[in-house]
Amino acid sequence: MKNSGVFQQPSLGVMFGAPVLALVTNRWNRKKLLISIMVSFIIGNLLSTLAPTFAILLAGRVIAALSHGIFMTIASLIAADVVAPNKRASAIAVMFTGLTVATITGVPIGTFIGQTLGWRMSFAFLVTLGLVGLISNAILVPNELPLPKPTNVKGIWRIIKQPQLLLILVITALGYGATFPVYTYLTTILNKNMGWSESAIVIILIFYGVAVAIGNTLGGRWANKNPLRALMGMFIGLGVSLLVIRATINLHFLGLLAVLLLGVFAFMNVPGLQLYIVQLAEKYTPNEVPLASALNISAFNVGISFASTAGGIAVSHHQLLNTPFIGIVMLIASIILIWVLMRMEGSTVDSKDLDLENC
């Protein structure tokens, strides 16, 4: 059970690369930057495809991971900039839905290609997808997008010394990461505990990706008006889905339904988390909006690394059944911090606020 390494290695590259590259590319033309990112992604995967040695393969993976981090940073800002203010979370949701579904469905698809045609063809497939992304960006992204204001490395300190911004970064790491103690070992749980075959799991993961797409879309809509209140409800929903996973972890069909429920809530929080840090940065550190966005991307990956490691420790102590409780503890901490942030921002919480339909 070494699945945690799948998430830790690329997430660490994104964690450190996103803010550094955000600083370096801060004043680049946004469309040219996106195209450059896609070119780097293609080069990284092409290196991996043709790698004669492990060192070159690793170099290709690092280049691709760095491209990943800065792409999410810039793409989420562009998505928020090209729509009406009351649609910003929905636009971010569309972008992250594509990313998340591609990640989830890409695992079984990449595994199938690798097993059928060899591991190099898995990377060749990524090169093909990169070319599609490159052409799409060249055609669809507006040419003249507004440039962010100048910033420098001190901008990181200006962000983290703002209590509200620091809080939302911690909330992002804990709340987003809460899915991963279970998700890291989802294939094992489906196979060993719920009794699904490996061929069935490939299909299940595709439906899981559909559930994620539905959740992200709903999460974007709910977060448009008031991201913090929506996030509170989403984290509660995710906590309930983790409890249901624990209750049904050894059941065949009920366990499958619980997994699909987890898919709906697993990444629903992403649009709201990304939108809210942009809103806070626009309010408290207007010169550092792209950098704040990049730090939040890093926080997502801090959450992945921390939670998958915690899940790995639990599994190594024969506690796979109890990995949902790790996520629940992280969610409880996130909900408390959201309440604190609401108080700091002058919001109030009542039963109406926690009704997702009214968010």
Short note summarizing the structure:
The protein has helices at residues 4-24, 30-50, 54-81, 88-117, 119-140, 154-160, 163-177, 180-183, 186-193, 198-223, 227-247, 253-266, 270-284, 289-316, 323-344. It is mainly α.
- Tally of DSSP β-strands: 0
**Beta-strand level of the residues, as a percent range?**
under 5%
User: From the structure provided, what is the oligomeric state, counting identical versus distinct chains?
Assistant: single chain
State the end-to-end distance: 39 Å
Radius of gyration, rounded?
A: 20 Å
Instruction: Estimate the global geometry from the Cα principal axes.
Output: globular
Alpha plus pi helix count? 15
Unreliable parts: 1-9, 347-359
Helix content: over 70%
Structural class comes to: mainly alpha
Strand/helix succession: HHHHHHHHHHHHHHH
Query: What is the average per-residue confidence, as pLDDT, rounded to a whole number?
Result: 86
Q: Please give the largest β-sheet.
A: none
Transmembrane segments: 6-26, 33-57, 63-84, 91-113, 119-140, 165-186, 198-218, 230-249, 255-277, 289-315, 321-342
Domain Major facilitator superfamily (MFS) profile: 1-345
Membrane topology: Multi-pass membrane protein
Subcellular location: Cell membrane
Give a verbal description of the structure.
With 359 residues, the chain is mainly alpha-helical. It has 15 helices and no strands. Helix 2 runs antiparallel to helix 5 (119-140) and helix 11 packs antiparallel against helix 15 (323-344). The chain is globular.
